UniProtKB/TrEMBL annotation:
Belongs to the sorting nexin family. It is a peripheral membrane protein. Residues 370-445 are annotated as: Disordered. Residues 376-391 have a biased composition (Low complexity). GO terms for molecular function: phosphatidylinositol binding. It comes from Gryllus longicercus. SUPFAM superfamilies: PX domain, Second domain of FERM. Its main location: membrane. This is PX domain-containing protein. SMART domains: PX (SM00312). PROSITE patterns: PX. The keyword Transport applies. Pfam families: PX (PF00787), SNX17-27-31_F1_FERM (PF21273), SNX17-31_F2_FERM (PF21271), SNX17_FERM_C (PF18116).
Protein backbone atom coordinates (compact mmCIF):
# COMPACT_ATOMS: atom_id res chain seq x y z
CA UNK A 1 0.00 0.00 0.00
CA UNK A 2 1.46 3.36 -1.01
CA UNK A 3 0.69 6.19 1.44
CA UNK A 4 1.72 9.82 1.09
CA UNK A 5 0.92 13.23 2.53
CA UNK A 6 1.92 15.47 -0.39
CA UNK A 7 0.40 18.67 0.97
CA UNK A 8 -1.51 20.37 3.75
CA UNK A 9 -4.50 22.65 4.04
CA UNK A 10 -5.37 25.30 6.62
CA UNK A 11 -8.81 25.24 8.24
CA UNK A 12 -10.68 27.23 10.88
CA UNK A 13 -12.72 25.62 13.65
CA UNK A 14 -16.03 26.86 15.04
CA UNK A 15 -14.20 29.23 17.37
CA UNK A 16 -12.23 30.84 14.56
CA UNK A 17 -8.94 29.17 15.49
CA UNK A 18 -6.81 27.96 12.60
CA UNK A 19 -5.43 24.44 12.35
CA UNK A 20 -3.53 22.43 9.77
CA UNK A 21 -5.09 19.52 7.89
CA UNK A 22 -2.88 16.82 6.36
CA UNK A 23 -4.09 15.38 3.06
CA UNK A 24 -3.57 11.63 2.99
CA UNK A 25 -3.27 9.97 -0.41
CA UNK A 26 -3.48 6.19 -0.76
CA UNK A 27 -2.11 4.52 -3.88
CA UNK A 28 -1.88 7.91 -5.58
CA UNK A 29 -5.47 8.95 -4.85
CA UNK A 30 -6.65 11.53 -2.30
CA UNK A 31 -8.44 9.75 0.52
CA UNK A 32 -8.97 12.07 3.49
CA UNK A 33 -7.79 15.09 5.46
CA UNK A 34 -6.87 14.67 9.12
CA UNK A 35 -5.33 16.72 11.92
CA UNK A 36 -2.16 15.89 13.81
CA UNK A 37 -4.13 15.09 16.96
CA UNK A 38 -6.27 12.59 15.06
CA UNK A 39 -3.20 10.68 13.90
CA UNK A 40 -1.77 10.90 17.41
CA UNK A 41 -4.97 9.41 18.83
CA UNK A 42 -4.75 6.60 16.26
CA UNK A 43 -1.14 5.97 17.27
CA UNK A 44 -2.09 5.69 20.95
CA UNK A 45 -4.79 3.13 20.16
CA UNK A 46 -2.43 1.15 17.94
CA UNK A 47 0.07 1.10 20.82
CA UNK A 48 -2.53 -0.44 23.12
CA UNK A 49 -3.40 -3.12 20.59
CA UNK A 50 -0.01 -3.99 19.11
CA UNK A 51 2.54 -2.62 21.58
CA UNK A 52 4.85 0.37 21.25
CA UNK A 53 7.76 -1.78 20.05
CA UNK A 54 5.82 -2.81 16.95
CA UNK A 55 5.09 0.75 15.83
CA UNK A 56 7.21 3.39 14.11
CA UNK A 57 8.16 6.52 16.02
CA UNK A 58 5.42 9.14 16.03
CA UNK A 59 6.47 12.81 15.69
CA UNK A 60 6.29 14.44 19.13
CA UNK A 61 3.91 17.17 20.19
CA UNK A 62 5.11 20.78 20.31
CA UNK A 63 4.10 23.24 23.02
CA UNK A 64 4.57 26.40 20.97
CA UNK A 65 3.03 27.29 17.59
CA UNK A 66 4.98 25.85 14.68
CA UNK A 67 6.80 27.90 12.08
CA UNK A 68 6.42 27.20 8.37
CA UNK A 69 9.57 25.09 8.31
CA UNK A 70 8.45 23.17 11.39
CA UNK A 71 5.06 22.50 9.81
CA UNK A 72 6.77 21.11 6.73
CA UNK A 73 9.00 18.98 8.95
CA UNK A 74 5.94 17.63 10.76
CA UNK A 75 4.25 16.83 7.44
CA UNK A 76 7.31 14.87 6.32
CA UNK A 77 7.50 12.98 9.62
CA UNK A 78 3.79 12.13 9.56
CA UNK A 79 4.17 10.91 5.98
CA UNK A 80 7.10 8.71 6.99
CA UNK A 81 5.06 7.38 9.91
CA UNK A 82 2.04 6.38 7.86
CA UNK A 83 4.27 4.92 5.14
CA UNK A 84 5.90 2.72 7.78
CA UNK A 85 2.45 1.60 8.91
CA UNK A 86 1.64 0.79 5.29
CA UNK A 87 4.67 -1.49 5.02
CA UNK A 88 3.62 -3.58 8.02
CA UNK A 89 1.05 -6.20 6.88
CA UNK A 90 -0.29 -6.71 10.40
CA UNK A 91 -0.87 -3.01 11.04
CA UNK A 92 -2.16 -2.00 7.62
CA UNK A 93 -4.72 -4.82 7.58
CA UNK A 94 -5.94 -4.25 11.13
CA UNK A 95 -9.56 -3.34 11.80
CA UNK A 96 -8.39 -0.35 13.82
CA UNK A 97 -6.34 1.20 11.03
CA UNK A 98 -8.91 0.45 8.34
CA UNK A 99 -11.69 1.76 10.56
CA UNK A 100 -9.77 5.00 11.09
CA UNK A 101 -9.29 5.55 7.36
CA UNK A 102 -12.93 4.78 6.62
CA UNK A 103 -14.15 7.16 9.33
CA UNK A 104 -11.74 9.86 8.13
CA UNK A 105 -13.07 9.47 4.59
CA UNK A 106 -16.63 9.88 5.87
CA UNK A 107 -15.74 12.99 7.87
CA UNK A 108 -13.73 14.56 5.04
CA UNK A 109 -16.62 14.11 2.60
CA UNK A 110 -19.22 15.17 5.21
CA UNK A 111 -21.17 11.95 4.73
CA UNK A 112 -23.74 10.78 7.27
CA UNK A 113 -24.66 7.17 7.84
CA UNK A 114 -27.67 6.51 5.63
CA UNK A 115 -28.98 4.01 3.13
CA UNK A 116 -28.32 4.89 -0.51
CA UNK A 117 -28.65 3.18 -3.89
CA UNK A 118 -25.47 1.87 -5.52
CA UNK A 119 -25.10 0.44 -9.00
CA UNK A 120 -22.45 -2.23 -9.48
CA UNK A 121 -21.71 -3.33 -13.04
CA UNK A 122 -20.19 -6.30 -14.78
CA UNK A 123 -17.70 -5.75 -17.58
CA UNK A 124 -20.35 -6.21 -20.26
CA UNK A 125 -22.58 -3.46 -18.87
CA UNK A 126 -24.96 -5.65 -16.88
CA UNK A 127 -26.13 -3.74 -13.86
CA UNK A 128 -26.63 -4.89 -10.27
CA UNK A 129 -28.83 -2.50 -8.29
CA UNK A 130 -28.66 -2.67 -4.52
CA UNK A 131 -29.02 -0.65 -1.35
CA UNK A 132 -25.96 0.05 0.78
CA UNK A 133 -25.03 2.22 3.72
CA UNK A 134 -22.68 5.10 3.08
CA UNK A 135 -20.56 3.68 5.92
CA UNK A 136 -20.18 0.24 4.37
CA UNK A 137 -16.69 -0.48 3.19
CA UNK A 138 -15.62 -2.29 0.07
CA UNK A 139 -15.47 -5.85 1.39
CA UNK A 140 -18.93 -5.48 2.94
CA UNK A 141 -20.40 -4.23 -0.33
CA UNK A 142 -18.60 -7.02 -2.21
CA UNK A 143 -20.12 -9.64 0.07
CA UNK A 144 -23.55 -8.08 -0.34
CA UNK A 145 -23.25 -8.12 -4.14
CA UNK A 146 -22.05 -11.72 -4.22
CA UNK A 147 -24.76 -12.83 -1.84
CA UNK A 148 -27.45 -11.31 -4.02
CA UNK A 149 -26.20 -13.02 -7.18
CA UNK A 150 -25.95 -16.32 -5.26
CA UNK A 151 -22.20 -16.73 -5.58
CA UNK A 152 -20.97 -19.43 -3.19
CA UNK A 153 -19.19 -17.91 -0.21
CA UNK A 154 -15.92 -19.76 -0.88
CA UNK A 155 -15.57 -17.90 -4.19
CA UNK A 156 -16.41 -14.37 -3.01
CA UNK A 157 -12.83 -13.22 -2.52
CA UNK A 158 -11.72 -14.42 -5.91
CA UNK A 159 -13.48 -11.22 -6.98
CA UNK A 160 -13.21 -7.55 -6.03
CA UNK A 161 -14.82 -4.21 -6.72
CA UNK A 162 -12.96 -1.86 -9.06
CA UNK A 163 -13.38 1.75 -10.12
CA UNK A 164 -13.47 2.01 -13.90
CA UNK A 165 -13.47 5.17 -15.99
CA UNK A 166 -15.07 5.56 -19.39
CA UNK A 167 -12.81 7.62 -21.66
CA UNK A 168 -14.00 10.17 -24.23
CA UNK A 169 -13.30 7.72 -27.06
CA UNK A 170 -15.57 5.12 -25.48
CA UNK A 171 -12.73 2.97 -24.18
CA UNK A 172 -12.48 2.10 -20.50
CA UNK A 173 -9.62 2.32 -18.01
CA UNK A 174 -9.36 0.27 -14.83
CA UNK A 175 -8.38 2.94 -12.31
CA UNK A 176 -7.94 0.89 -9.17
CA UNK A 177 -9.22 -1.82 -6.90
CA UNK A 178 -11.40 -0.50 -4.10
CA UNK A 179 -9.76 -1.19 -0.74
CA UNK A 180 -11.34 -2.28 2.53
CA UNK A 181 -10.66 1.07 4.19
CA UNK A 182 -12.92 3.00 1.83
CA UNK A 183 -16.61 3.28 1.06
CA UNK A 184 -17.38 2.45 -2.58
CA UNK A 185 -20.27 4.91 -2.51
CA UNK A 186 -18.13 7.79 -1.21
CA UNK A 187 -15.15 6.97 -3.43
CA UNK A 188 -17.27 6.93 -6.57
CA UNK A 189 -19.13 10.08 -5.57
CA UNK A 190 -15.98 12.06 -4.77
CA UNK A 191 -14.31 11.81 -8.19
CA UNK A 192 -15.21 13.67 -11.35
CA UNK A 193 -16.09 12.09 -14.67
CA UNK A 194 -18.00 8.99 -15.67
CA UNK A 195 -16.93 6.22 -13.32
CA UNK A 196 -18.46 2.88 -12.44
CA UNK A 197 -18.04 0.39 -9.64
CA UNK A 198 -17.39 -2.90 -11.42
CA UNK A 199 -17.17 -6.50 -10.23
CA UNK A 200 -14.11 -8.26 -11.69
CA UNK A 201 -12.04 -11.30 -10.84
CA UNK A 202 -9.20 -10.42 -8.51
CA UNK A 203 -6.45 -12.97 -9.01
CA UNK A 204 -3.52 -13.38 -11.39
CA UNK A 205 -2.88 -17.12 -11.61
CA UNK A 206 -5.20 -18.50 -14.33
CA UNK A 207 -5.11 -21.94 -12.68
CA UNK A 208 -7.66 -20.60 -10.19
CA UNK A 209 -10.12 -20.55 -13.09
CA UNK A 210 -10.40 -24.32 -12.78
CA UNK A 211 -11.85 -23.98 -9.28
CA UNK A 212 -14.35 -21.33 -10.29
CA UNK A 213 -15.52 -23.26 -13.34
CA UNK A 214 -17.12 -25.75 -10.95
CA UNK A 215 -19.61 -23.12 -9.78
CA UNK A 216 -22.35 -21.97 -12.14
CA UNK A 217 -22.40 -18.35 -10.96
CA UNK A 218 -18.60 -18.04 -10.84
CA UNK A 219 -18.35 -19.54 -14.31
CA UNK A 220 -20.83 -16.99 -15.61
CA UNK A 221 -18.86 -14.11 -14.06
CA UNK A 222 -15.64 -15.33 -15.68
CA UNK A 223 -17.42 -15.77 -18.99
CA UNK A 224 -18.91 -12.27 -18.96
CA UNK A 225 -15.54 -10.67 -18.19
CA UNK A 226 -13.69 -12.75 -20.79
CA UNK A 227 -16.18 -11.95 -23.56
CA UNK A 228 -15.85 -8.25 -22.71
CA UNK A 229 -12.04 -8.46 -22.77
CA UNK A 230 -12.09 -10.23 -26.14
CA UNK A 231 -14.48 -7.68 -27.64
CA UNK A 232 -12.26 -4.81 -26.45
CA UNK A 233 -9.19 -6.37 -28.01
CA UNK A 234 -7.53 -7.01 -24.66
CA UNK A 235 -6.98 -10.66 -25.67
CA UNK A 236 -4.98 -11.38 -28.82
CA UNK A 237 -6.89 -13.64 -31.24
CA UNK A 238 -6.58 -14.69 -34.87
CA UNK A 239 -9.37 -14.82 -37.42
CA UNK A 240 -9.97 -18.56 -37.06
CA UNK A 241 -10.04 -18.35 -33.26
CA UNK A 242 -12.37 -15.38 -33.42
CA UNK A 243 -14.82 -17.40 -35.47
CA UNK A 244 -14.60 -20.31 -33.03
CA UNK A 245 -15.28 -18.00 -30.10
CA UNK A 246 -18.20 -16.39 -31.91
CA UNK A 247 -19.69 -19.81 -32.61
CA UNK A 248 -19.31 -20.90 -28.99
CA UNK A 249 -20.81 -17.62 -27.80
CA UNK A 250 -23.82 -17.96 -30.10
CA UNK A 251 -24.46 -21.47 -28.75
CA UNK A 252 -24.10 -20.35 -25.13
CA UNK A 253 -21.21 -22.77 -24.64
CA UNK A 254 -19.66 -20.78 -21.79
CA UNK A 255 -17.30 -23.42 -20.43
CA UNK A 256 -15.95 -24.26 -23.88
CA UNK A 257 -15.56 -20.55 -24.63
CA UNK A 258 -13.49 -20.07 -21.48
CA UNK A 259 -11.40 -23.17 -22.12
CA UNK A 260 -10.45 -21.82 -25.54
CA UNK A 261 -9.93 -18.25 -24.32
CA UNK A 262 -7.60 -19.43 -21.56
CA UNK A 263 -5.16 -20.66 -24.22
CA UNK A 264 -4.93 -17.24 -25.89
CA UNK A 265 -2.19 -14.69 -25.51
CA UNK A 266 -2.84 -11.97 -22.92
CA UNK A 267 -5.78 -13.80 -21.37
CA UNK A 268 -6.17 -12.59 -17.79
CA UNK A 269 -3.97 -9.54 -18.30
CA UNK A 270 -4.83 -6.12 -16.94
CA UNK A 271 -4.62 -3.33 -19.50
CA UNK A 272 -2.76 -0.19 -18.48
CA UNK A 273 -2.63 3.14 -20.21
CA UNK A 274 0.29 3.82 -22.58
CA UNK A 275 3.77 3.82 -21.05
CA UNK A 276 7.48 3.68 -21.89
CA UNK A 277 10.31 1.61 -20.44
CA UNK A 278 14.12 1.74 -20.21
CA UNK A 279 14.48 -1.87 -21.40
CA UNK A 280 15.95 -2.99 -23.73
CA UNK A 281 16.91 0.67 -24.23
CA UNK A 282 15.71 4.02 -22.81
CA UNK A 283 12.45 5.21 -24.30
CA UNK A 284 11.35 1.75 -25.44
CA UNK A 285 7.65 1.42 -26.10
CA UNK A 286 6.06 -1.22 -23.91
CA UNK A 287 3.73 -3.37 -25.99
CA UNK A 288 2.99 -6.33 -23.74
CA UNK A 289 4.22 -7.78 -20.48
CA UNK A 290 5.00 -11.39 -19.64
CA UNK A 291 1.95 -12.82 -17.86
CA UNK A 292 4.09 -15.03 -15.65
CA UNK A 293 5.85 -12.04 -14.19
CA UNK A 294 3.82 -8.92 -14.83
CA UNK A 295 0.36 -10.08 -15.75
CA UNK A 296 -0.32 -6.88 -17.65
CA UNK A 297 0.01 -5.25 -21.02
CA UNK A 298 0.35 -1.66 -22.11
CA UNK A 299 1.20 0.64 -25.03
CA UNK A 300 3.13 3.83 -25.71
CA UNK A 301 3.10 6.88 -23.48
CA UNK A 302 4.01 10.34 -24.78
CA UNK A 303 4.44 12.21 -21.49
CA UNK A 304 4.84 9.90 -18.49
CA UNK A 305 4.45 11.41 -15.03
CA UNK A 306 5.62 8.68 -12.67
CA UNK A 307 8.20 5.92 -12.72
CA UNK A 308 8.09 2.43 -11.28
CA UNK A 309 11.39 0.59 -10.73
CA UNK A 310 11.62 -3.11 -9.92
CA UNK A 311 13.90 -6.09 -10.42
CA UNK A 312 12.96 -8.55 -13.17
CA UNK A 313 14.19 -12.13 -13.45
CA UNK A 314 15.73 -12.18 -16.93
CA UNK A 315 17.18 -15.66 -16.58
CA UNK A 316 18.29 -17.99 -13.83
CA UNK A 317 20.43 -16.10 -11.31
CA UNK A 318 20.14 -12.83 -13.24
CA UNK A 319 17.95 -10.00 -11.98
CA UNK A 320 17.88 -6.68 -13.76
CA UNK A 321 16.41 -3.34 -12.77
CA UNK A 322 13.56 -2.18 -15.00
CA UNK A 323 12.00 1.28 -14.92
CA UNK A 324 8.55 1.93 -16.39
CA UNK A 325 7.34 5.50 -16.84
CA UNK A 326 3.57 5.77 -16.62
CA UNK A 327 0.86 7.83 -14.96
CA UNK A 328 -0.35 4.48 -13.59
CA UNK A 329 2.96 3.59 -11.93
CA UNK A 330 1.34 3.30 -8.51
CA UNK A 331 -1.35 0.95 -9.82
CA UNK A 332 1.39 -1.17 -11.39
CA UNK A 333 3.16 -1.30 -8.05
CA UNK A 334 -0.04 -2.39 -6.31
CA UNK A 335 -0.51 -5.12 -8.93
CA UNK A 336 3.04 -6.38 -8.40
CA UNK A 337 2.39 -6.49 -4.67
CA UNK A 338 -0.83 -8.43 -5.21
CA UNK A 339 0.90 -10.94 -7.50
CA UNK A 340 3.65 -11.66 -4.99
CA UNK A 341 1.12 -11.94 -2.15
CA UNK A 342 -0.95 -14.38 -4.21
CA UNK A 343 2.11 -16.41 -5.16
CA UNK A 344 3.14 -16.73 -1.54
CA UNK A 345 -0.36 -17.56 -0.35
CA UNK A 346 -0.44 -20.41 -2.82
CA UNK A 347 3.08 -21.52 -1.96
CA UNK A 348 2.37 -21.67 1.78
CA UNK A 349 -1.12 -23.12 1.39
CA UNK A 350 -2.71 -20.21 3.25
CA UNK A 351 -6.49 -20.25 2.76
CA UNK A 352 -8.10 -17.39 0.90
CA UNK A 353 -10.13 -14.86 2.88
CA UNK A 354 -13.74 -15.88 3.52
CA UNK A 355 -16.87 -13.87 4.38
CA UNK A 356 -17.02 -13.54 8.16
CA UNK A 357 -13.25 -13.51 8.65
CA UNK A 358 -13.56 -9.80 9.32
CA UNK A 359 -15.75 -10.37 12.39
CA UNK A 360 -14.24 -8.99 15.55
CA UNK A 361 -15.49 -8.33 19.04
CA UNK A 362 -14.95 -5.04 20.79
CA UNK A 363 -14.80 -1.45 19.71
CA UNK A 364 -12.50 1.54 19.42
CA UNK A 365 -12.90 5.26 19.08
CA UNK A 366 -12.44 7.72 16.26
CA UNK A 367 -11.41 11.27 17.15
CA UNK A 368 -13.01 13.85 14.88
CA UNK A 369 -11.34 17.08 13.82
CA UNK A 370 -13.12 19.06 16.55
CA UNK A 371 -11.61 16.78 19.20
CA UNK A 372 -14.78 14.88 20.03
CA UNK A 373 -14.64 11.10 19.93
CA UNK A 374 -17.15 8.60 18.63
CA UNK A 375 -17.29 4.94 19.45
CA UNK A 376 -16.76 2.72 16.43
CA UNK A 377 -18.37 -0.68 16.86
CA UNK A 378 -17.57 -3.62 14.63
CA UNK A 379 -20.12 -6.24 13.65
CA UNK A 380 -20.33 -9.01 11.10
CA UNK A 381 -22.27 -6.84 8.69
CA UNK A 382 -21.20 -3.25 9.06
CA UNK A 383 -18.71 -0.84 10.57
CA UNK A 384 -20.83 1.97 11.87
CA UNK A 385 -20.34 5.21 13.75
CA UNK A 386 -24.00 5.01 14.71
CA UNK A 387 -24.71 2.09 17.03
CA UNK A 388 -28.39 2.15 16.04
CA UNK A 389 -27.94 1.71 12.29
CA UNK A 390 -29.15 -1.45 10.58
CA UNK A 391 -28.00 -2.83 7.27
CA UNK A 392 -30.82 -3.34 4.80
CA UNK A 393 -30.91 -6.30 2.48
CA UNK A 394 -29.87 -5.38 -1.02
CA UNK A 395 -32.03 -6.06 -4.02
CA UNK A 396 -30.22 -7.16 -7.15
CA UNK A 397 -31.51 -6.77 -10.66
CA UNK A 398 -29.63 -7.61 -13.85
CA UNK A 399 -30.42 -5.19 -16.64
CA UNK A 400 -28.80 -5.72 -20.06
CA UNK A 401 -27.09 -2.65 -21.48
CA UNK A 402 -26.33 -1.91 -25.06
CA UNK A 403 -22.62 -1.18 -24.43
CA UNK A 404 -21.33 -4.22 -24.80
CA UNK A 405 4.18 -17.29 7.27
CA UNK A 406 7.47 -15.27 8.08
CA UNK A 407 8.98 -15.74 4.65
CA UNK A 408 5.76 -14.53 3.18
CA UNK A 409 5.76 -11.42 5.36
CA UNK A 410 9.35 -10.56 4.50
CA UNK A 411 8.75 -10.81 0.77
CA UNK A 412 5.55 -8.84 0.94
CA UNK A 413 7.24 -6.11 2.95
CA UNK A 414 10.07 -5.95 0.40
CA UNK A 415 7.67 -5.34 -2.43
CA UNK A 416 5.91 -2.57 -0.55
CA UNK A 417 9.09 -0.55 -1.02
CA UNK A 418 8.98 -0.51 -4.83
CA UNK A 419 10.56 2.72 -6.05
CA UNK A 420 8.05 5.35 -7.11
CA UNK A 421 9.16 8.79 -8.17
CA UNK A 422 8.26 11.69 -10.38
CA UNK A 423 10.00 11.45 -13.72
CA UNK A 424 10.09 15.16 -14.43
CA UNK A 425 11.62 16.57 -11.25
CA UNK A 426 14.34 15.61 -8.74
CA UNK A 427 13.49 13.28 -5.89
CA UNK A 428 13.10 15.46 -2.78
CA UNK A 429 13.57 12.58 -0.34
CA UNK A 430 15.57 9.34 -0.29
CA UNK A 431 13.85 6.15 -1.33
CA UNK A 432 14.41 2.48 -0.62
CA UNK A 433 15.16 -0.19 -3.18
CA UNK A 434 13.02 -3.18 -4.02
CA UNK A 435 14.33 -6.75 -3.94
CA UNK A 436 10.98 -8.46 -3.62
CA UNK A 437 11.71 -11.40 -5.89
CA UNK A 438 14.97 -12.47 -4.27
CA UNK A 439 13.26 -15.07 -2.09
CA UNK A 440 11.18 -16.57 -4.90
CA UNK A 441 12.51 -19.45 -6.96
CA UNK A 442 12.67 -19.85 -10.72
CA UNK A 443 9.71 -22.22 -10.68
CA UNK A 444 7.55 -19.56 -9.08
CA UNK A 445 8.38 -16.98 -11.73
Amino acid sequence: MHFSIPDTEEFSDDNGANYMGYNIHVNGVFHCTVRYKQLHNLHEQLKKEFGANNLPVFPPKKLLPLSSSQLEERRAHLEKYIQSIGQNPQLVSSDLFNGFLLSAQQETCCETNQEVPLEVFLMNGFQISLKVLTTERSDQVLEKVCQQINLASEYVYYFSLFLIKREDDGDITVLRKLQDFESPYISQKSIQGVHRVVLRKSYWDPSYDLELLQDKVALNLLYVQTVADVERGWVLIGTDTQQQLASLQSRGAKREYLELARTLKYYGFLQFRPCVCDYPRPGSRVLNGDASASGCSSKTQPKPKLELSFEYLMSKDRLQWITIASEQAILMSVCLQAMVDELLLKKTGTPRKQPGDRARKGSWSYMKRDGSSQLISHSNSVDSISSNSDSANGEVKFTPKTESTTSMRKLSEKLSSVTLKSSNKPIPEPFVENDAFEGIGDDDL
